[in-house]
Design goal:
There is one protein chain. The chain is an alpha/beta fold. It contains 5 helices and 12 strands. The protein has a 6-stranded parallel sheet, with helices on both faces. Strands 8-5-6-9 form a 4-stranded mixed sheet, covered by helices on one side. A two-stranded antiparallel sheet has the order 10-11. A hairpin with a 7-residue loop joins strand 10 and strand 11. The radius of gyration is 22 Å and the shape is elongated.
Length: 203
């Protein structure tokens, strides 16, 4: 009997005695994992480090420590050809002296900085909204994507992300860098965007 015949025979046959118990067990299980509201940072950090996200994390105390943290990352063997800064007022007043700032976003090289609207502890997801001060295209062009996350914007679950008072033109949910196994079944990171994701957690 071929594999196809076995599958068809099973579909046509009487369900096994244990299938009802298996279905009931699935219904009793929680639909989403429990996230301790007092451990959002630890849960978020663990999700970032997991294989499905594979991001690096640096924790800093204050916003004015961002330039030094970015420089440390760029100097740690990234081979960066420059840093693209969005015209975000949060970043404009910081001291970027000593950092090679690119006027245009490097393509397939360098780094782009972005400020997340929110982040999800359960999955390590970053939420980015488009705005005049937050162009989105650079986040898909550079080799390294550096994202600032403010501690107070981290929520437990995707469903906890609140809609803004005025919706942006687009909202992006980023859970790690893109990847593909299309080429000889080998996993390749950065197939449709940055190859490296680095999160700066502020607070």
């Amino acid at each position: 009997m071929s594999a196809r015949d076995r599958i068809l025979a099973r579909l046509a046959g009487t369900p096994s005695a244990g299938i009802g118990a298996e279905a009931q067990a699935l219904l009793r299980a929680p639909e989403r994992p429990q996230v301790d509201p007092d451990a959002l940072i630890e849960t978020f950090a663990a999700a970032l480090a997991g294989p499905s996200v594979a991001a690096t994390l640096d924790r800093i105390d204050r916003i004015d420590a961002v330039p030094d943290a970015v420089r440390r990352y760029l100097e740690a063997g990234t081979g960066s050809a420059g840093l693209y800064l969005p015209p975000d007022p949060l970043l404009a007043g910081l001291d970027w002296g000593g950092t090679a700032i690119a006027t245009d976003c490097p393509i397939d090289g360098g780094a782009a900085l972005a400020v997340a609207t929110a982040a999800v502890a359960e999955t390590g997801t970053l939420v980015l909204d488009t705005a005049p001060a937050a162009p989105m295209l650079p986040n898909f062009l550079a080799l390294h994507h550096i994202v600032l996350v403010r501690r107070e914007t981290i929520v437990a679950y995707l469903e906890d992300i609140l809609g803004p008072a005025a919706w942006p033109r687009a909202r992006y949910w980023i859970t790690g860098v893109s990847g593909t196994t299309d080429i000889e079944g080998q996993y390749v990171r950065g197939a449709h965007g940055p190859r490296f994701l680095h999160v700066l957690l502020i607070g």
